[in-house]
Amino acid sequence: MQQRLSQQHRDDLQSAARILVVEDDRDLCNLLSTLLDVEGYKTETSCDGDDVVARVAQQRPDAVVLDVMLPGRSGFDICRELKFRRETNLIPIVMLTAMQGKDAEQSGLRVGANRYLNKPFEPDELLNGIREAIDHRRQLEAGRTHTAIEIQMNSDTRNREQLNDLLSELFVLTPLSEEEVGQIRYAALEMIENAMEWGNRRRSDLMVTVAYEVTDDQVKFVITDQGQGFDPKSLAHAACEEDPCKHMCVRETLGLRDGGFGMMIARGVMDEVRYNERGNQVTLIKYFNGRKKQPA
After folding, report:
1. All domains of the chain, ordered by start, with CATH?
2. N or C of the chain: less Cβ packing under 10 Å?
3. What is the pLDDT of residue 258?
């Protein structure tokens, strides 16, 4: 185990940090509480999932350690609701589970968990995860970020309904008009679909990550796939203003969905559309102050 922080260092960094531990195994719950107390945190505990959302909203802990398998509500459902509420969105959540495999981990990440630990875990894994999550929250707050969430999903169509619900709920947090909200949601969904379809080629083993952030002056999406990437300036199949249907024969041959307007829609709706050098990550930004769009 790594060397513990000095008492003075713990007091300086963690004296105000309150951690809510939600774990139905009372022995483990007490053990986690003792571990965190020794590290200088102030801990509270709960062994039931039913009242966690209301309790967090009222008392606003600095972080939540959340078990997946709980009586009442599951940890996944609790995490989803806390991350979709403005007043609790930035509270870090470290999820604990005895479930094994990628499906369990991806379920936690899909609903915005900041860290994910499989039982059994080392004490330092938990402590480092909490410390990093709290530090990240403080950085977000210093930058006047109001909402930040990251989701991962498989490259299939089953996630579209869930993702659409997410965007509808999160966009309530912006000062944009209903029309602008609808346009941005549509543009984001199109670019996410592009990442699944063209980036990952619908491979179920490849993930798409969507990071979403609202600050005082902008809303930003960063959409990343695990594919090989491409040059967004040279796409023979893509729609263009001069001939928006020229891509259709290619898409029909490849058996891909109708459309192909994702990039064109995004550039028409968002103020900035930027790809990374590899071409597997796109950043979409909409400013609230009416900043002019960048050249296409």
Report:
1. 7-142 (3.40.50.2300), 145-287 (3.30.565.10)
2. N
3. 47
